[in-house]
Specification:
alpha/beta; Nucleotidyltransferase, domain 5; DHBP synthase; 3 domains; 9-stranded mixed sheet; 5-stranded mixed sheet; 20 helices; 21 strands; 35% helix; 18% strand
């Protein structure tokens, strides 16, 4: 049985394909279209999934969509009627997309990909829950979903047992932790649904001195249930997230691209602390009602790695699973697996142990691209010389673009489409931010460390292992190592680490280990292979163009090493890789 999962029309669109309960392929549309956070119908992602399976659309038995459009439109309409006339403009502007796309999925499937069979519509938060539980290693787990909003739900508590998922409690729109965090994101001058991670990075520079004031905007009970004070917000009727009352309380909002003050840093820190306090209460209550010490966590809020790294310490859960694409793009995964296990009552047999589910390119395809383009390159003769040569380049503080194997599923670069560099160089954070990534200087870089050495350099919980394979946990760097790996130690002494296991990605693991033999630290800076405003690269061509428009020194594709200095960049239109 083939089931095609689809998510689109709101945030990040994506597609996945499962065959008899096993994941075949999964990818976000943005990687093919080259449009950051592309939310259009995922035509290219679907085509990739079918090609990876070696089938055409006629072989697909069912399509599973990650929410119920009619129910969501009911919420939009109810919201408009309740808040009319203030809600008229956003409602009027949204109508064309509803009638042209969002309510016409069956028509679009027929027109764009020729699919005429059954379509299953899975509720949004059920898709989130399924995306974590059904691919987790747990037979039984408590399940938490938190995001901006689905159809009506914004938060759910549940339990998964075997093939079944049961929702136990919910909170509905407009009361939402995701929308609260996004409102503060907008207040700080960043883009909603795009820059929330910047608030996390900024929080490390501040003190939570606005925490008591922020408590006025949300009423929180002992069990973690909450209600927003809607006087402070306008997202439920207007074109922006927060109201005039919010600015009266906290001062004028920061204008985009202007200077970031200490007040802004303190606001970010306050929002992060408040979010953590609430979710710790939610998790403790969820444990009390389920008595299960394993947690599956999904929804956009589950991408908050600062929060995730503290869940073990502040909640009763002993094991936690968050799949790599926990946000809306990953809804397609949950929809497909929910259909297979809960709707069609098929047994579970798949665990997502790695994130490499996207396209890959053969050595012959890479060589043809390089030769046809007239690109100068060196080909390593064997694995040992490759590891030794590239490790020496990184030790000498050259910046390496790294394209190897199948592309990652989700928003994190995990060693397939990464930029690698030297964490022991105190200037490397500035070099990467200014010359390569073209982004704000307060943004931290992530350490990738061999899994067996992680606890030597990072302080995880003393009882449970450090589950950071998908780079979704922030942990403190041990104090005696902070000045030795300054480029991956954030201002607050933490790092958003990725633990790397050889069985998941042998060459990446061996590269980190080879660098460790030279430097004494089996750790690399790992940041996404893109620049500000661009999606992570997908193809060899994407990777080469990105290198030629940035300060990346070398590109390693399979065993081919390309030096930027050896190749002219005038033919590659590098201007598009300047500042966005």
């Amino acid at each position: 049985m083939y089931i095609l999962g689809i998510s689109c029309f709101y945030h990040d669109s994506g597609a996945c394909l499962i065959k008899d309960g096993q994941l075949v392929a999964a990818a976000l549309e943005e990687r093919f279209s080259r449009k950051k956070h592309d939310f259009s119908f995922p035509h290219a992602a679907i085509a990739f999934c079918l090609e990876e399976a070696g089938i055409d659309i006629s072989a697909v038995d069912h399509v599973a969509f990650y929410e119920k459009p009619v129910l969501k439109f009911d919420r939009i309409l109810s919201q408009h009627l309740e808040m009319f006339p203030r809600s008229f403009l956003p409602f009027f502007l949204a109508l064309p997309s509803w009638f042209n796309e969002k309510l016409r999925l069956r028509h679009i499937l027929r027109k764009k990909i020729g699919y005429r069979k059954n379509v299953l519509y899975i509720p949004h938060h059920l898709s989130h829950a399924a995306s974590a539980f059904y691919v987790s290693p747990f037979e039984e787990a408590a399940v938490l979903t938190l995001d901006g909003a689905g159809e009506w739900q914004t938060s759910t508590l549940g339990i998964g047992r075997g093939q079944q998922l049961q929702q136990l409690a919910e909170i509905n729109f407009p009361h939402s932790l995701g929308l609260l965090y996004s409102a503060v994101t907008a207040y700080l001058g960043f883009k909603v649904n795009n820059d929330e991670y910047k608030v996390m990075g900024l929080a490390g520079y501040g003190k939570p001195r606005y925490l008591e004031k922020l408590r006025k905007v949300i009423d929180v009970k002992d069990d973690g249930s909450f209600a927003l004070n809607l006087e402070y917000f306008s997202f439920h009727y207007g074109m922006r997230m927060f109201s005039k009352k919010f600015e009266e309380e906290f001062g004028p909002a920061r204008k985009p691209e202007t200077e970031i003050s200490q007040d802004h840093q303190d606001m970010a820190a306050s929002m992060q602390v408040l979010l953590e306090e609430i979710i710790f209460k939610i998790c403790r209550h969820l444990y009390e009602i389920t008595k299960v010490d394993k947690l599956c966590f999904a929804g956009g809020v589950a991408l908050n790695s600062l929060l995730n790294g503290k869940l073990f310490k502040h909640t009763p859960f002993k094991e936690i699973y968050i799949q790599p694409e926990a946000g809306d793009g990953g809804g397609c995964l949950g929809a497909a697996f929910y259909a297979y296990h809960a709707v069609f009552d098929q047994p579970r047999s798949f665990v997502m142990e790695h994130a490499y589910w996207g396209p890959q390119y053969t050595r012959a395809e890479m060589k043809q691209f390089l030769d046809d383009s007239g690109i100068k390159y060196k080909e390593y003769a064997d694995e040992n010389s490759l590891l030794a040569g590239v490790a020496k380049l990184i030790k000498d503080s050259f910046v390496i673009g790294w394209l190897q194997g199948r592309m990652e599923w989700g928003p994190r670069a995990l060693g397939a489409r990464s930029i690698l560099s030297n964490p022991t160089n105190p200037k490397m954070q500035e070099i990467l931010n200014v010359k390569v990534k073209h982004r704000e200087p307060f943004r931290p870089f992530a350490p990738a460390v061999t899994a067996e050495k992680a606890n030597e350099y990072f302080q995880g919980d003393e009882v449970v292992p450090m589950p950071a394979d998908f780079m979704l946990m922030v942990y403190p760097v041990r104090p005696d190592h902070r000045d030795k790996i300054p480029a991956v130690t954030h201002v607050d002494g933490t790092g958003r680490l990725q633990t790397v296991r050889r069985k998941q990605n042998p060459r990446y693991y061996d590269m980190i280990k080879a660098f460790g033999e030279l430097s004494g630290y089996p750790i690399l800076i790992n940041t996404s292979f893109n620049i500000r405003g661009e999606p992570i690269v997908c193809t060899p061509r994407d990777a080469y163009r990105c290198m030629m428009g940035t300060g990346i020194d070398y590109l390693l594709m399979d065993k081919f090493l390309i030096a930027r200095a050896d190749n002219p960049n005038d033919m590659w239109d590098s201007e598009q890789y300047a500042h966005d």
